[in-house]
Specification:
The chain is mainly β. The protein is built from seven helices and 37 strands. The protein has a 22-stranded antiparallel β-barrel. It has a five-stranded mixed β-sheet with strand order 3-8-9-6-7. A hairpin with an 8-residue loop joins strand 18 and strand 19. 43% of the residues are buried.
């Protein structure tokens, strides 16, 4: 949808009117008890309980959300259910400061505070129960293979900003940790089924039981099918089957053991980079994780975690295998009421192989890489626990750039008026991807089969084994405040200073003998960058339900090196500068509820493509009826304000543009 000035004015007016109406009907002090009961019926938590929610991703230990010196946002299970989203990437649109763009039916681009590298976002670390799904081979996340059963998610903790001190390299701009429920909380049967205009059909089955008095388990299976986003333009259908399990056992009063695993098999429609012809990409994956937690004393807690993860891709252009082993041990030790230490060690082993195809000029033989390191963090409280000073550093060694150090200092202050102020300075690094070191790719692009290139091209891409890590110095200021039990506000200001960003430098020359143009691409340290912005969210309860309003602003400034030839200046405009999200949950009574989600995203430019992505306003509406305690029926309409719109365009991986259409689907959910 191309947004005119008048349409933007109308959209802004609509947001303002709805905001003013709901604020006018906000609760008064003498209605708080009634509203608190209404809110608990809606989401099971009031705002005080939400701020007191225990989170773990920010500091690798349990702490209240209100006591975190990080820009952290928590998506609850009820947020997920009422969002109407069918994939975890779409759920993440709730978070202020995240940029989520749907590329095609199976692919999303999710970034925080800028990315600088096109489709695969290499500065955002994504975890599932502490298991990293960040692919070190290409430096990014394949969202098409991350199809977590939404009903099993307890919460999603999203940290915008540096997390390298605790989580290591590549947690430069943020961390997304998807935390699933204990099997003890998923007892009995669950059946969810649905279908619609884009969602061709999905079926989720889960059963939870008990092996003995101390051990519970669950098993699940799911299948999902999604149609082409735009029929007849680009075949991008998506189909995925996944199964898995989780078991939790209380070995003794102080020790808990969790074992879980998943297996998936997916197929996605795609388009050849060379010819524009349709083909299928096949994805296979499996993982298993074991986590051991032991509280030896009231002031000492040990956690050990091990996982194995294997992924395989089959494409006509190339194939790829990845096998990961990861081990981590950490210890939380409270020395006194004012002093606490957290330390840990980790080892990460990766075996990867890229197979020769139509894209690669030679096969990249199997390669082993290792990463090992440790971290230490100290937290000291002052003035009767009103002030907290957090100091720490991560020391990590990898096979490419050697030893990396990622220090961090944070300060937090609690005022008597339920207000929290915090500030932080951090250093984080992004290690180069394997392919940027050793890739050798060459292929011809013929004009007869790809209309975007009227002259025959010979494209050649070479790695660079002299690359160093990118790094970022991040500065943050944060503010949280709660007014009684019905209104809370959270705002973060940030400034990032990136050095030595890796780009593909391109050059070309005519090959007259073969009647073509040769285009050479090499990886180099090609630019520095600065970003600054604001992320803010407001959450309040009124007599109509619960309302959440968020706003995000970011500005990117690129300083390209003079001797590098590339078009990476377009990155300054790749990420939308402004995003607004307004969600409201209505409790209609008699088991009926309705959820409205209005989003505005400003203009952007596809990475290195020159194709503008027009700003758009999108509306999702969900209506549900809780027939009884076991059965829920719902209908969801998505992108209702426009027939279709672009959200992202990346010319290298998606030669034909894909639009996100208006859609509707129905769902039945049965629990017993």
């Amino acid at each position: 949808m191309k947004l005119s000035k008048s349409s933007l004015t109308k959209a802004a007016s609509g947001v303002f009117i709805l905001f003013a109406f709901l604020l006018h009907n906000s609760v008064k002090a003498n209605d708080l008890d009634i509203v608190r009961l209404q809110q608990q019926a809606l989401i099971g938590l009031d705002l005080s309980e939400l701020l007191d929610m225990e989170v773990t991703s920010a500091s690798k230990k349990s702490q209240k959300l209100s006591e975190s010196a990080n820009a952290i946002f928590v998506i609850t299970q009820d947020d997920i259910r009422r969002s109407g989203a069918t994939h975890v990437a779409d759920v993440l649109r709730i978070v202020p400061g995240l940029q989520v763009s749907k590329v095609n039916s199976s692919t999303w681009r999710v970034s925080a505070r800028g990315s600088f590298n096109g489709l695969f976002v290499n500065k955002l670390l994504v975890l599932v129960d502490g298991r990293s799904v960040y692919n070190m081979q290409i430096a990014g996340t394949f969202w098409e293979s991350l199809d977590v059963l939404l009903e099993d998610i307890e919460r999603i903790e999203v940290i915008r900003g540096s997390g390298g001190t605790l989580w290591g390299a590549n947690a430069v701009n943020g961390i997304i940790n998807i935390i699933t429920k204990s099997s003890q909380d998923t007892q009995g049967y669950l059946i969810t089924a649905g279908a619609g205009t884009v969602e061709s059909g999905f079926l989720h089955l889960r059963y939870g039981g008990r092996l003995d008095d101390n051990t519970t388990f669950r098993v699940y299976g799911k299948t999902s099918m999604r149609d082409n986003l735009k029929q007849g333009i680009q075949p991008d259908r998506w189909q995925m089957q996944q199964t898995g399990f989780r078991a939790d056992s209380r070995l003794d009063t102080d020790t808990l053991l969790t074992v879980q695993g998943d297996f998936y098999d997916a197929s996605t429609g795609d388009t050849s980079w060379r010819t524009g012809d349709a083909f299928d990409t096949h994805l296979l994956g499996k993982n298993i994780l074991a986590r051991w937690t032991h509280e030896s004393t009231e002031n000492s807690k040990w956690t050990g975690q091990f996982y194995y993860d294997s992924t395989t891709q089959f494409r006509p252009a190339y194939g790829a295998d990845n096998h990961v082993l990861d081990f981590e041990l950490q210890h939380q030790w409270r020395l006194s009421e004012q002093q606490e230490f957290l330390w840990g060690i980790n080892y990460h082993w990766l075996y990867s192989k890229i197979h020769q195809g139509s894209l690669l000029s030679r096969e990249l033989l199997g390669q082993h890489d290792e990463v090992f390191g440790g971290f230490l963090q100290s937290e000291t409280s002052f003035f009767d626990h009103k002030a907290h000073l957090i100091v720490g550093a991560k020391f990590e060694h990898n096979d490419y750039t050697g030893t990396e150090i990622q220090p961090n200092i944070r300060f937090l202050w609690h005022s008597p008026e339920d207000t929290t102020y915090w500030a932080a300075i951090s250093r984080a690094v992004r290690t180069p991807a394997q392919v940027s070191y050793n890739i050798r790719a060459a292929y011809d692009l013929l004009p007869t089969s790809n209309p975007f290139h009227p002259i025959p091209l010979n494209l050649q891409l070479y790695g660079n084994d002299q690359l160093n890590s990118e790094f970022n110095i991040a500065y943050e200021l944060g503010f949280r405040q709660q007014w009684q039990d019905y209104l809370s506000w959270d705002t973060t200001l940030f400034y990032n200073d990136y050095k030595g960003l890796i780009v593909r430098s391109t050059s070309s020359y005519p090959d007259l003998d073969n009647g073509r143009i040769v285009v050479l691409s090499n990886y180099y340290h090609g630019m520095d960058a600065k970003t600054y912005g604001l992320e803010s969210s407001l959450n309040w309860i009124n007599q109509w339900g619960q309302t959440q309003l968020s706003y995000h602003f970011i500005n990117i400034e690129i300083d390209k090196y003079a001797d590098i030839v590339s078009d990476y200046e377009s990155i300054e405009h790749e990420v939308p500068e402004h995003q607004i999200s307004l969600r409201h949950h209505f409790d209609l009574g008699s088991g009926w509820e309705s959820d409205w989600w209005l989003r505005y995203v400003s203009n952007a430019v596809g990475s290195a493509s020159g194709f503008d992505v027009e700003g758009y306003v999108s509306l999702d509406v969900r209506v549900a009826w809780q027939v009884d305690e076991h059965l829920e029926l719902s209908v969801v309409g998505q992108n209702l304000l426009d027939k279709q719109h672009y959200e992202y365009f990346e010319s290298t991986f998606t030669p034909l543009r894909t639009e996100v259409p208006r859609s509707i689907y129905g769902q039945v959910r049965l629990e017993f």
